[in-house]
Amino acid sequence: KKVLVAGGAGYIGTHVCADLAMNGYDVVVLDNFANSSPLAIHRVEMLTGKKIGVYQADTRDYDSVIRVFEAEEAKGSPIDTVVHLAGLKAVGESVEKPHIYYDNNVVGSINLVRAMDEVGCKKLVFSSSATVYGDARSSPIKECHPLSATSPYGRSKLYIEEMLRDTCISDGGWSVAILRYFNPVGAHPSGLIGEDPKGIPNNLMPFITKVALGKQPVLKVFGSDYPTRDGTGVRDYLHVCDLASGHLAAIEKVDDLEGSEVYNLGTGNGVSVLEMVDEFESASGKEVPYEIVERRKGDVAVCFADPSKAHEGLGWQAKLDLSHMCSDLWRWTERNPDGYGVEEHLERPLSTPGAKSGVVPLDRAQLAPAGQAGVAAKAADAE
Ligand code: UD1
């Protein structure tokens, strides 16, 4: 079965691609590499020994999106299911530049759905977020909890969810699984793929790794006066590999789902910032100095999932504990202190001469870092 992963070169996308490839799916990635690197796909190929089809295309450009579907169909096996993770996710940035978020996230999703409709591919797994619960009044949070948004980013997810629900109402042929992620952390245990945020990270765990590497002097803990065990914010951290396996379960689900269904993907456990710091220190053997500062605007005290619907409906459950999350994160960080290597990535030519504008199928050599083309070829041969 062929699965198109839109945003497949990103943090979550690479883990989803790896899991799909390891489980016998034919994987095709569509990514504009705005926040990611083609080298990440090369790593997925190294890890899985499978060849991943890659198109550099932007979901904001409908013509590019439809060409990806057509190009795959022309090869004789059309795309069966789409996993849509192509979106921007920085809350603060979305407040400053809302139109960019609506354009990327909402317009991009509309184009993807339009193109899918056009070619008759009507099975979709969509990456949503617990952010759609807004300022949740109580945890654990069930899927039926009232929805609201506290930022343009959150609102973009809400609009897309509504658009997908309307699409399913308008045409009974559609099946959509909407996955609301809680706080994905960690990295693949191989140390080959992980999160590679550009600039200074906003999220807790990527920031902690910068402190452990000595690239940031101190972790700022946003508030210690919340009504929680130790006064710091409580979240539902889940291992990114567990999150990836939730996508596989959802892909199977949309095979015989009628209409749309929403699932929380979380562990159901709330963990505080200081507990996370402790776990990371034990797993890494590194000290993470921190100071307590003011609360961050827009943060809630406590947010964790009731994941029972995913358990019952998808047969999915998070399996990996905090020590796996932290030790896998540290392995990836130690081995890749500069992520996938931004400079090298930027020097690489991304356009294929003669390719139609807007959509660029990347070839093997472009995926491999200089001097490692043989590794990609080997990975592809191993299939
Ligand atoms: C954030 C977004 C959420 C988004 C998710 C994407 C906000 C308000 N929410 O979730 O919408 O879907 O990222 O990954 O931005 N913390 C610190 N110091 C730091 C960073 C974080 O103390 O330097 C604390 C926060 O106050 C919070 C916890 O760590 O209590 C987790 O923060 P973070 O990793 O940013 O995730 P969320 O805010 O839960």
UniProtKB/TrEMBL annotation:
Alphabetical list of SUPFAM superfamilies matching this protein: NAD(P)-binding Rossmann-fold domains
Q: What is its EC number?
A: 5.1.3.2
Q: Which GO terms describe its biological process?
A: galactose metabolic process
Domain spans labelled NAD(P)-binding: 4-328
Q: Which UniProt keywords apply?
A: Carbohydrate metabolism, Isomerase, NAD
- Domain of life according to the entry: Eukaryota
This protein's pathway: Carbohydrate metabolism; galactose metabolism
Quickly give the catalysed reaction: UDP-alpha-D-glucose = UDP-alpha-D-galactose
Cite a single GO MF annotation: UDP-glucose 4-epimerase activity
* Pfam families reported for this sequence: GDP_Man_Dehyd
State whether keyword Metal-binding applies.
no
Judged by the first EC level, this protein's enzyme class is isomerase
Name the coenzymes or cofactors required. Answer: NAD(+)
Instruction: Mention any one GO cellular component term assigned to this protein in its UniProt record.
Output: cytosol
SUBUNIT field: Homodimer.
Q: Which family does it belong to?
A: Belongs to the NAD(P)-dependent epimerase/dehydratase family.
**The protein's name:** UDP-glucose 4-epimerase
